[in-house]
Amino acid sequence: MKQILRTAFTTLAATALVGVGAGSAVAEVTVNAQTALPTQHTLSKSFIKNFVDVVNKEGKGTVQVNLLGGPEITPANRAGQAIQRGVIDMLFIPAAYLSGVVPPAQAMMLQDVGIDKLHSDGAFAYYSGVFQKRLHAHLLAWSETGPASGYYLYMKTKPPMKDGVIDLKGLAMRSTGAYRPIEQALHASTVQIASGDVPTGLDRGVIQGFGWPTVGLASIGLAPKVKYRIEPKFYSLADVVLVSDKKWNSLPKDAQAMLTKIAGEYEHSSINEITAQNKADIAAADKAGVEPITMTGAGAKAYLKIASDAMWTEVGKRVDAATVKKLRGMLQNVGE
After folding, report:
1. Which of 20, 93, 251, 315 is 20 to 30 A off residue 29, Cα-Cα?
2. Could you tell me if 37 and 71 are in contact, meaning their C-beta atoms sit under 8 angstroms apart?
3. Is 20 a member of any domain?
4. What order of strands is seen across the sheet that includes strand 291-294?
């Protein structure tokens, strides 16, 4: 009888040890992620290189990010709802893509204070609350932003100048929420087509131009399709990394801490990445024959004011005046 009990105890102890081992093996958690932009897009590549790859290296045993893919997983125009419902664990997306469900998100591209002040002066905390309320999501990072980022208008047709500023009257421009306000303010007609259809749209004359980030034009083969780049650039890039509340709240504290730490590093490394990529993309576009049309002096100042005023007007259609004033105070330098 003693031998039977001893054997049973040994078996239970062994089972318990196996359980401990199994518990250690599964302590590492996985977060499934997708990008709203194609994974080959320069901005997505920055997210993958500077965040996903770093997490998967430094987070072994704690947390891993499983990148499922890009908009073929969930189309960009439905990605916000997917993160809201917890269908997606983590989403990398330009903030402007979410303006339909998160109206203040459109103003994020108007920031000119830099990532450190966005944190220290309350903008990051404010938007954390907005995304949590609107999308039930945790704002993990505000990335690929800063003075080297922004947007250009690219044209197949050379636009005329009026008082030192380009005039797009009579020209059709491919548009999204990021570009529609400035394009319409410059008297263009706007056409909403998918980014993948831009080359065909140019070839068929459906559009004569489009807006595009300061990076990514050459990487997806658009440079040979256009003749002119309108300078100076306007706005600032503003990408966000969101984690659904459902997933975030289920993560162990050490996994949350790891993701938060690497996200902070990524915010800065992504700026360096975009600065370098911007130079490389401009060089590639120039080599492909894209000519700059550069407004200078009073013309450039007027152009940038048109861009800023048009976007603030658009934001003001969706949020109240007090919120617009608050956003201006957090996102822009005094006197700008």
Report:
1. 93
2. yes
3. no
4. 189-191, 172-174, 209-213, 151-155, 228-234, 291-294
Q: Let me know if residue 85 belongs to a domain.
A: yes
Question: What pLDDT digit, counting tens, does each position of 39-90 carry?
Answer: 988 899 999 999 999 999 999 999 999 999 999 999 998 999 999 999 999 9
For residues 200 and 221, the answer to whether their CB atoms sit within 8 Å is no
Nearest residue to 276 (alpha-carbon basis) of 144, 107, 135, 78: 144
At 139-163, the pLDDT tens digits run 999 999 988 889 999 999 999 999 9
Whether 229 and 248 share a structural domain:
no
Does residue 11 lie in a domain region? Answer: no
Q: Within this chain, do residues 89 and 103 fall inside the same structural domain, yes or no?
A: yes
> Same domain for 108 and 200?
no
**pLDDT tier for residue 219 given thresholds of 50, 70 and 90:** low
Overall domain count for the chain:
2
Check if the beta carbon of residue 188 is closer than 8 Å to that of residue 169.
yes
* Residue 83 · residue 135 · CB < 8 Å: yes
pTM for the full predicted model: 0.85
Tell me if 10 is assigned to some domain: no
